[in-house]
Amino acid sequence: MVFRKLPGVSASGMGLRLSQKFVFLLFLSGLVTLCFGALFFLPDTMRLKRIFLSKNENPAVTVGSDNVLSKKVPGDPDRKPSVTHGARTVERSVGSRAQDEWSPAKAHEPAARDERVTSAAQNGQRGSAYSYETFKKCLLKPPLGKNKGTPSDSETLQRREKVKEMMKFAWDNYKRYAWGKNELRPLTKNGHIGNMFGGLRGASIVDSLDTLYIMGLMEEYEEAKEWIQDNLDLNSNGEASLFEVNIRYVGGLLSAYYLTGAEIFKQKVLELGEKLLPAFNTPTGIPRGVINLGSWGWASAGSSILAEFGTLHLEFVHLSELSRNPLFTEKVMNIRKLLNKIEKPHGLYPNFLSPVSGNWVQHHVSIGGLGDSFYEYLIKSFLMSDKMDQEAQKMYYSAMEAIEANLVQKSPGGLTYVAEWRGGILDHKMGHLACFSGGMIGIGADDGPAEQKQHYLDLAAEITHTCHESYSRSATKLGPEAFRFDAGAEATATRLSDRYYILRPEVIESYMYMWRLTHDPKYREWGWEAVEALEKHCRVEAGFSGIRDVYASTVSHDNMQQSFFLSETLK
Q1: Mind telling me which residue stretches traverse the membrane in this protein (predicted)?
Q2: On the chain, which terminus has fewer CB atoms closer than 10 Å, C or N?
């Protein structure tokens, strides 16, 4: 605006007009400031959609910056946007919006194989590309084993049917006595809510969706789906574990969506994913461990745990893919960025990190509780990306090298185990949770240094054997929560507080992976031993219960049917 002095107007009159204009401009600038300030109080994804996903966005997306979405070209369904990765440009064909939405239920249809709905996730110059195409390639791989994974011998078929019957028995009793609650108390025949999930309910329902579907229990699956559609309330206040909500609710809903294509699962998981984002509002971007899922989300103070903030990557990358919102991927990529920057003692990752300073809080290292799934998610992120996530690959094999150098031990009796490390001093203890590592090391054997492949397979087999010994050396043939290798003990719990078994899956999981990798029949036999022990010692009138002492011939039950028993152990 141009101000001109008009003839016949006095200086005092002009001064008045200027002051009025000054007040008006001040008011206008305040209004603009208020509007833009309000923008930053909107949820993060709302801001991103307005800023990054406008109708006029540039279809060329440079991978290597912080913006990581490639989208269709508005108004031209046949035009191909390009995704630039360094000096390399990859052409992606993108159809109309209706074609753009890939449904997992159509994954096996020929048309689905030709769709190209892609995005890329990137961290600095060492980023990794994830896309619908990558995920579909994982889903379209044929089942492992002969006859497309279906056993031909009658004994194995009968055993499969037995496990399916166990699942139906556990589910039916949950439905009868605890429907809508988080878990079943089978001795007292009532439901358990607990405090891990805040105000969320139905953990066993969400966690079991994929198991029900895979086992062909379709009536039960439909019941679960209907409950989620009508009753799963994500707007409840209460402190919830970010880790537990992610692996049980987010993971459960994502798995169900990819298996079935049912939109309700996608809708719910994206809504829940948004509610987890405030946990990342820390000076470092390392999320807090506890979050309130109410409308005003917040996260509690305290150290963050490696296995918790390191067990978000798989789910959050999928959240970005389904929502077309890069923020989820950016959050977990930032975790990697910080972990790669800070010093690691002897190459090891301690279990506790300050989300405020970004420094390790104490030097306790374990691949069992507090550390375990961080390593699992590294190798699985690499595999899920169709082996394009080179950063995850590098982090995993570097960690494995440090673990072997510092933690892997051999007992006097010849058992290989993974000890814990406390500020340079070894604690010759291995937890049940650490027994997943046999399977993990096995599935990672192919993609490390070529000369190490057989070594990793051997190490995986040795660790799995040790974990089987922890089962076979107990009266119940079930393993304790932790077992030790000191004071003459080998693969046995020497403390009363370590003798319980809560229906955990890790040992059986390693049997399954090792069977798939080697087809050595002993792994199937070991799995069947565990089934028989569960039936004998954990099955009660109204479900399955953990036991307090695996070494006692007369068992005492803990009155809890964990949701992961249905979602993992029986699967």
Answers
A1: 22-42
A2: N
Characterize the bridge pairing of strands 425-427 and 420-422. antiparallel
Amino acid at site 568:
E
**Whole-angstrom distance, CA of residue 462 vs CA of residue 474:** 19
DSSP for 358-374? -SEEE-EE-SSTTTHHH
Q: Give the strand pairing for 425-427 and 61-63.
A: unpaired
Active site positions, annotated:
244, 372, 481, 506
CA distances from 510 to 283, 373, 426, 474 (A): 38, 14, 24, 19
pLDDT tens sequence for the chain (571 residues): 433 333 333 334 444 455 665 556 666 666 655 554 444 343 333 333 332 333 333 333 333 333 332 333 333 333 333 333 333 222 222 233 233 334 444 443 433 333 333 333 333 333 345 565 666 665 565 655 556 667 778 999 999 999 999 999 999 999 999 999 999 999 999 999 999 999 999 999 999 999 999 999 999 999 999 999 999 999 888 899 999 999 999 999 999 999 999 999 999 999 999 999 999 999 999 999 999 987 556 656 689 999 999 999 999 999 999 999 999 999 999 999 999 999 999 999 999 999 999 999 989 999 999 999 999 999 999 999 999 999 999 999 999 999 999 999 999 999 999 999 999 999 999 999 999 999 999 999 999 999 999 999 999 999 999 999 999 999 999 999 999 999 899 999 999 999 999 999 999 999 999 999 999 999 999 999 999 999 999 999 999 999 999 999 999 999 999 999 999 999 9
In 505-552, which residue ranges form alpha helices assigned H by DSSP? 506-518, 521-533
Instruction: Answer for the pair 89, 62: CB distance below 8 angstroms, yes or no.
Output: no
> Pairing relation of β-strands 82-85 and 61-63?
parallel
CA distances 396 to 336, 389, 391, 467, 476, Å, are 12, 11, 9, 22, 35
Q: Which residue has the tokens 């080697």?
A: 518
